[in-house]
């Protein structure tokens, strides 16, 4: 009989902030780390400590105790304190694909400073696990993952239903985990949670009771004789007498080998004994084969404002600062700001731990998050501005013969992966006057205000001399300043105008330039437009919209002829849950705006865009009933609460703006409201009318296909799920894709219409979980604005290319203006990288820290191979197949400037281009 080994792994799961503000947790962290270093110093039998898989703990500790750096570094290098591979323990579904990769990349970069890193996919408390995790881990040379959630528990709370039958997704706590592309890692579930070896008794009688139970619990689910015991828990101080406790256990159980172990030691032993009947679990781990009450998915709608700020911050980095800084380096030799971008990413990722971005902490935590979002964004925007200024002076505007010498060029930048057309609004300085610091002489502003602008007769010309429709507005005189690189700041007063127009066919990862001519020789002739405002809606070449008296609307896809009827209805219901879980009161019937008269008016009718405004004045319950406060004080579990909604009503005014652009294949919607109600949820509904049993949800490096009807074990009336950029339903012939900006929760309703419901707001009053933690700011009172885009299409979201429109919807345009007539090295229209692949998405265009290679990352959304071609427009000396850690692997052949390859199903592909300055 094989002797059993009990591996005790010491750790403390360190939620950086949660039920206390960050600095209170920070204080406890310094105590923990001081105790750890003291224990390692005095007790050679206390061999290892797993530092929770996140390198930010080192930063946080050394911020207070920089004098401990040498001692800490010595124990890390000796392998006694195990660090990495992440920077933070993020929520995987509420952070972007690239954010998940940068978390791993920066964790590796930080650990590299100490020379060692834990090669373990560590997901102890993630609220579900991304399906592509095995592929990401394998690309980082990690072959094993440990996790606490996502799989139907093999023994959570030690409730045994059918230990080796269909009752569990795996008969063991060990299994294989496969990504959609086929990448596979060993998966280890914390079947008895990550605290099953916590606070081991030293005294023999207590130790006997402890180990009789713990050994039995672990053996129920372990596939080998190697048993895992996690010696720690949330913010758990280290067990200083663990060595004595292990000696006691050894004496009590001579047939068990008790080891103060590390994950590396445990996994090495585990691999030697894995049985042949290991189960392979596939893709996302979202606890779908449970009763549905423990998935914690409703953190996706807690404090929606945080999700919106996060989506903006991530997008500005991924689709703004990084590609623009890369262009500035390639075009003008400007040094790529590696350290500044890393700092911006780190500041942003400090908001990505699961108890932070999930919105499930006390109010003080989330107030501090707002500041971090701002700090990261300000730095990111500065990098964007600096890069745009460098690029602006490189564009050769003097060579365009059709532009008069006094014209003002404007350049629009598209940093998405596809050619883009859309309406843009830019501000343009037409005249300015510098002045010395001090009171501004009124004469400057007065003189600038008197300048004739001739806005009605001005035209916007492309670089072929063709005039396009534009709306010009006088913005008056404003103060501004410049910060030259070689002298003191320069204040000025400037006369500004705004130009709004449709920027057509702006190249992917590139730009296109137009020129504003205020005094043209020839006036442009008005061209007929397929964009028309009708009495009850609007139409263009692709779709038509008909708005009803209650503010709902029908959208007809002109390509398929299919009409989506009655979409855009708002739904409101009560919520007796908390920041983690939505719970509708018993008997509560959701209110909707269906049939509620709305004020509908046309507010914009331009050649490039038509917009209607829809106003609802709605009365909804003010809060939950008085019983709710008593139930919370008494810690009545949320599923047993009997409170209802209050009979008191408050006004809830919704202002919806629905727009159709000249070339738009979708409708853009914004909704603004001032929330004065509590304990409720607001959603917007999109009935598809399509027959389908599954749907596609944008997730981490994949469009995950999910079942609309949950598993038979599911009893939660709600089946809300996570999304990133879009959710899509298709019957194979046509489909409807709903894109969003920072709205991470949706549900496809089982109502016979496959209605897509997107959560816009959830107002709750407590943290939930293990105690009574009031969070009044989680009621999200005050003003809110949300944005959605609706894309009807042929086939599904991948086949039709609607996924690309959804990704572009999240990405801002960038611009530079008023360069004047100048010679330069860049043409007026430019694309840095040409590529093709119908089911592929461009994820990153940046530079690597190690080699200054240009990094290009794409991923295949289809479950079948696709052909990929890449052609860089910048000079390349060599190209390499790379990975998510941006390492050079084998050379990639360039033939006639092209890389031609096959992207496997759901494959994430990274290339590194060594370049030279032209």
Keywords:
six-stranded antiparallel beta sheet, hydrolase, 918 residues, Alpha-mannosidase, Gal_mutarotase_sf_dom, 32% strand, nine-stranded antiparallel beta sheet, alpha+beta, single chain, Glyco_hydro_38_N
Walk me through this protein's architecture:
The chain is of the alpha+beta class. Helix content is 22%, strand content 32%. It contains 16 helices and 46 strands. The strands form 10 sheets. The chain has a 9-stranded antiparallel beta sheet with strand order 25-26-27-28-37-34-33-30-31. A hairpin with a 5-residue loop joins β21 and β22. α9 runs antiparallel to α10. It is globular and about 100 Å long. Residues 154-166 have low confidence and may be disordered.
Radius of gyration: 29 Å
Distance between the termini: 70 Å
Chain-averaged pLDDT:
95
Structural class determined from secondary elements: alpha+beta
Largest pleated sheet: 9 strands, antiparallel
Question: Which stretches of 5+ consecutive residues score pLDDT under 50?
Answer: 154-166
Total helices: the number is: 16
- Please bin the fraction of helical residues: 10-25%
Kindly estimate the percentage of residues that lie in beta strands according to DSSP.
25-35%
Helices and strands in order:
Blueprint: E1 4-10, H1 22-42, E2 49-50, H2 56-64, H3 69-77, E3 81-82, H4 97-112, E4 121-123, H5 133-139, E5 144-147, E6 174-178, E7 184-189, H6 204-221, E8 226-231, H7 242-252, E9 256-260, H8 263-271, E10 280-282, H9 304-332, H10 338-349, H11 354-357, H12 363-392, E11 408-414, E12 420-434, H13 442-449, E13 459-462, E14 467-468, E15 470-482, E16 490-506, E17 510-517, E18 532-534, E19 537-539, E20 543-547, E21 553-557, E22 563-567, E23 569-574, E24 591-592, E25 599-605, E26 609-621, H14 627-633, E27 649-661, E28 667-675, E29 680-686, E30 694-699, E31 702-707, E32 721-722, E33 726-730, E34 734-740, E35 745-748, E36 756-763, E37 782-794, H15 797-800, H16 802-810, E38 814-817, E39 829-831, E40 833-836, E41 840-847, E42 854-860, E43 866-872, E44 876-881, E45 899-903, E46 908-915
Parallel strand pairs: 1-8, 1-9, 2-3, 4-5, 5-7, 6-10
Antiparallel strand pairs: 6-7, 11-17, 11-38, 12-16, 13-14, 13-17, 15-16, 17-39, 18-19, 19-20, 20-21, 21-22, 23-24, 23-29, 25-26, 26-27, 27-28, 28-37, 29-36, 30-31, 30-33, 32-35, 33-34, 34-37, 35-36, 40-43, 41-42, 42-46, 43-45, 44-46
Helix pairs in contact: 1-2, 4-10, 6-7, 9-10, 9-12, 10-12
Pfam family, one: Alpha-mann_mid
Protein name: Alpha-mannosidase
InterPro entries: Gal_mutarotase_sf_dom, GH38_beta-1, GH38_C, Glyco_hydro/deAcase_b/a-brl, Glyco_hydro_38_C, Glyco_hydro_38_cen, Glyco_hydro_38_cen_sf, Glyco_hydro_38_N
């Amino acid at each position: 009989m094989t002797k059993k080994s009990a591996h005790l792994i010491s750790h403390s799961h360190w939620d950086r902030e949660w039920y206390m503000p960050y600095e209170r947790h920070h204080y406890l962290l310094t105590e923990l780390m001081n105790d750890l270093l003291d224990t390692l110093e005095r007790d050679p039998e206390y061999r290892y400590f797993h530092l929770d898989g996140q390198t930010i703990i080192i930063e946080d500790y050394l911020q207070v105790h920089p004098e401990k750096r040498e001692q800490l570094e010595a124990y890390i290098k000796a392998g006694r304190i195990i660090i990495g591979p992440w920077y933070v323990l993020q929520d995987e579904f509420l952070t972007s694909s690239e954010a998940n990769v940068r978390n791993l990349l920066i964790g590796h970069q930080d650990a590299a400073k100490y020379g060692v890193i834990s090669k373990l996919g560590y997901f102890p408390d993630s609220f579900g696990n991304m399906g592509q995790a095995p592929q990401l881990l394998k690309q980082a040379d990690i072959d094993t993952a440990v996790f606490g959630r996502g799989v139907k528990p093999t023994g959570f709370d030690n409730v045994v239903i059918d230990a080796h039958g269909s009752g569990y997704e795996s008969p063991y706590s060990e299994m294989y985990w496969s990504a959609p592309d086929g990448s596979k890692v060993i998966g280890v579930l914390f079947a008895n949670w990550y605290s099953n070896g916590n606070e081991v008794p030293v005294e023999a009688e207590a130790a006997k009771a402890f180990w009789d139970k713990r050994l039995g619990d672990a053996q129920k689910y372990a596939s080998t004789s190697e048993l895992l015991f996690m010696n720690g828990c949330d913010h758990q101080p280290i067990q200083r007498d663990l060595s004595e406790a292990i000696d006691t256990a050894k004496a009590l159980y001579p047939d068990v080998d008790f080891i103060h172990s590390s994950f590396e030691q445990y996994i090495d032993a585990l691999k030697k004994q894995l049985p042949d009947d290991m189960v392979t679990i596939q893709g996302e781990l979202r606890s779908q084969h449970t009763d549905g009450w423990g998935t914690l998915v409703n953190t996706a709608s807690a404090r929606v404002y945080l999700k919106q700020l996060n989506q903006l911050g991530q997008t500005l980095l991924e689709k703004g600062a990084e590609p623009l800084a890369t262009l500035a380096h390639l075009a003008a030799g400007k040094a790529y700001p590696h350290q500044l971008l890393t700092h911006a990413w780190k500041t942003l990722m400090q908001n990505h731990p699961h108890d932070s971005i999930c919105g499930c902490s006390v109010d003080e935590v989330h107030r501090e998050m707002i500041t971090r979002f701002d700090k990261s964004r300000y730095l990111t925007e500065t990098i964007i501005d600096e890069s745009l200024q460098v690029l602006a002076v490189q564009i050769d505007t003097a060579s365009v013969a059709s532009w008069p010498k006094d014209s003002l060029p404007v350049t629009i930048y598209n940093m998405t992966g596809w050619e883009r057309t859309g309406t843009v609004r830019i501000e343009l300085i037409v005249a300015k006057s510098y002045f010395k610091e001090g009171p501004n002489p009124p004469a400057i502003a007065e003189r600038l205000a008197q300048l004739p602008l001739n806005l009605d007769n001005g035209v916007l010309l492309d670089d072929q001399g063709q005039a396009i429709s534009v709306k010009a507005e006088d913005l008056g005189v404003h103060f501004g300043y410049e910060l030259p690189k070689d002298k003191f700041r320069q204040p000025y007063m400037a006369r500004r105008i705004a130009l709004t127009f449709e920027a057509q066919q702006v190249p992917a990862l590139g730009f296109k330039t137009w020129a504003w001519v205020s005094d043209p020789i020839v006036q442009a002739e008005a061209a007929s437009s397929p964009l028309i405002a009708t009495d009850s809606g609007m139409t263009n070449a692709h779709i038509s919209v008909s708005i009803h008296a209650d503010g709902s609307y029908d959208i007809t896809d002109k390509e398929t002829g299919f009409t989506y009827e009655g979409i855009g209805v708002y739904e409101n219901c009560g919520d007796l849950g908390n920041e983690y879980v939505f719970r509708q009161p018993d008997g509560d019937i959701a209110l909707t705006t269906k049939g509620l008269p709305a004020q509908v008016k046309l507010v914009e009718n331009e050649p490039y865009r038509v917009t209607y405004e829809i106003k609802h004045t709605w009365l909804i319950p003010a809060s939950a009933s008085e019983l709710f406060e008593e139930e919370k004080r008494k810690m009545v579990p949320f599923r047993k609460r009997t409170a209802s909604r209050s009979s008191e009503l408050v006004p809830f005014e919704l202002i919806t703006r629905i727009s159709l652009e000249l070339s738009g294949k979708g409708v853009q919607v914004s909704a603004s409201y001032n929330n004065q109600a509590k304990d409720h949820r607001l959603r917007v509904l999109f009935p598809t009318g399509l027959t389908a049993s599954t749907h596609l949800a944008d997730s981490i490096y994949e469009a995950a296909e999910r079942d609309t009807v949950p598993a038979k074990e599911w009893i939660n009336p709600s089946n809300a799920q996570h999304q990133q950029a879009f959710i899509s339903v298709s019957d194979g012939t046509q489909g409807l894709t709903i894109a969003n900006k920072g709205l991470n929760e949706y549900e496809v309703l089982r109502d016979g219409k496959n209605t897509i419901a997107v959560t816009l707001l959830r107002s709750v009053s407590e943290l939930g979980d293990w105690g009574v933690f009031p969070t009044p700011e989680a009621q999200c009172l005050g003003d809110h604005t949300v944005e959605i885009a609706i894309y009807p299409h042929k086939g599904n979201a991948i086949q039709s290319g609607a996924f690309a429109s959804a990704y572009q919807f999240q990405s801002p345009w960038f611009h530079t203006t008023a360069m004047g007539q100048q010679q330069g090295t860049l043409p007026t229209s430019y694309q840095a990288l040409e590529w093709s692949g119908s089911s592929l998405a461009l994820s990153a265009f940046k530079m690597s820290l190690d080699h200054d290679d240009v990094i290009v990352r794409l991923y295949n959304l289809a479950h079948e191979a696709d052909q990929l071609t890449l052609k860089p427009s910048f000079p390349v000396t060599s190209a390499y197949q790379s990975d998510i850690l941006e390492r050079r692997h084998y050379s990639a052949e360039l033939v006639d400037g092209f890389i031609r390859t096959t992207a496997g199903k759901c494959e994430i592909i990274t290339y590194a281009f060594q370049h030279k300055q032209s």
